[in-house]
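[job 4417] fold queue: 2 targets
>>> target A
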Amino acid sequence: MILTKIGVAAFVCMIGISSVAAEERLGVAVYPGAKYDQIRTGLLAENPSFQGVAYRTNDDIARVIDFYRKQGLLFLKIGSPSKERARFKKVDIDVDVVVQQPWKDAQTGATMTDTLILILKEEAKKGE
């Protein structure tokens, strides 16, 4: 019982730290209430050309888009005129924020209906 409580406390602490770490490391606010997605963050870490962190929220994508617009990020649309995907850029530090709803889970192929938030920073190439 005590180990279970410690495990839950450690997990909750890790989620809080991951939001703060992402904001400090990548310089972009994490959408309030979004949950850190360890699996998708791990998949992002497999690509050495950028740093990235993933979050998910049950909030509608329109609310997430509105939040990032209010952060003063440059708004770039992706794909069709639908509001299912959007991309933002924090130009001064070259960080991208991509939001999607629905999105396809790369591991299972399932279509997910919550909103996925990816915060990405391209790694500097050696010699730059």
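>>> target B
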Amino acid sequence: MRMRVAACGRTRTRRGAAAALCALAVVLPCAAQEKPPARGQIHVATVPEAAVVSLDGVVQGPAPLTVENVGPGRYLLAAAKPGYRDARRTLEVAPGQRLAVDLELEPLLGLVLIHSEPSGAGVEIGGADRGKTPLLLTDLRLGEYRVKLTAPGYLDKELELHVRDRTPIKLDTRLDADSAVLVVNSVPPGADVRVNGISRGTAPCRVARVPQGASTIEVVMDGFEPYRQEMRLAAGQEEELTIQLRPLPARLTIETIPAKARIYVDNQFRGLAPLTLSELEPGTYRIRAEKESHEPLARTVTLERADDVVEELRLFANVGALEITTEPAGVRVFVDGKPRGETPAPLGQTDRVSQPLNVAMLEPGTREVRLTRPGYRPETVSVEIQRDRTTTRHVRLLRRFIPNCEVRTDTRVYRGVLMEVDPRGNVKLETRPGVMKTIPAEDIRSRRPLRLDDPGTE
């Protein structure tokens, strides 16, 4: 039999080829040998940290960590931590591969059902409001908790809660009432009884479920002073109160049109209107209002117990007023020879027509009104003033023609009232009443103002 055997790149034939091959593999240093596959590594991080990591059931330690010298193949990577569900992942590691693996562990949550008597109690866990009973909680992590239950009219109650696994837990508790009983009588009867601002009945009455500790008791009735008392009651206590109510005095408010009138009550001065008088005994009072330039007014008022009366007195003026407008504005106004002001020009407008000037406190009758303004002829009018009325009058003053400007050209001299100088220097003069003349700037040789004593002026 002939066989070809490869050894160090040579081929030969001989008997006992198998034996020769075995000898060559042992003796010859250049014989080819297979290398072992490269080892890999796995870096593991967990959320939360410090979870215990195992690889194919062999514990490696708390994360984060790196598992070294991992041969090629398939592995089961797991992480475990108390209070969390185990996290697992299957990995395929290639020769020499370096893997980074993140594992997130889901926290274990308990199941808790909370009942109370009465129901509707507020539940706080760790200072956070969680709702009202009956209450099912499915988001509590494993651990120990303090549960606080609160309800109006009941004592707060705290319970311990231990959540160890997913086994449902039921808390069932009864709240102890924190209330007392209060019996209230009033003289006279029929008063409204309020506890801490809440109406609880009409005296005589029995008020149950008054919170223990400090409470504010009020007894209120129309026409009487309200009664108020602070009380401290214990749970289960019963207390009785009998309240003698004090009747309220009468109150009188006096208003006048116009305001600021002097007020007299039974001929005694009490102040200026509007005026409120409290602590008045029931009875009949004579009130009188007086104001300058107005007729006095008196009235009789009868007050009952606890009355709150408002009396309005309308006074009628015994003088009149004058409202005058002028054309133009800025006219001085004299009434019976006395200066009474100047007609105002509208703000930001031409002064051709004035705003009204009001002259008050005029005695009824015929009044002489004189109006003057420089450059205009004075006017005098008679006005009939009526009591408690405003008389209106409009007066137009005629302008006096008084030349105030002289303009010279090469050919002549112009005198008149200066009306305008435009941006180009052209001058507009009123040379005669109502006659306007515009002199071009290029013709003007001089321009000067005129005085009243210049020749040719009035």
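[job 4417] complete. Note on B: Residues 405-449 form one domain.
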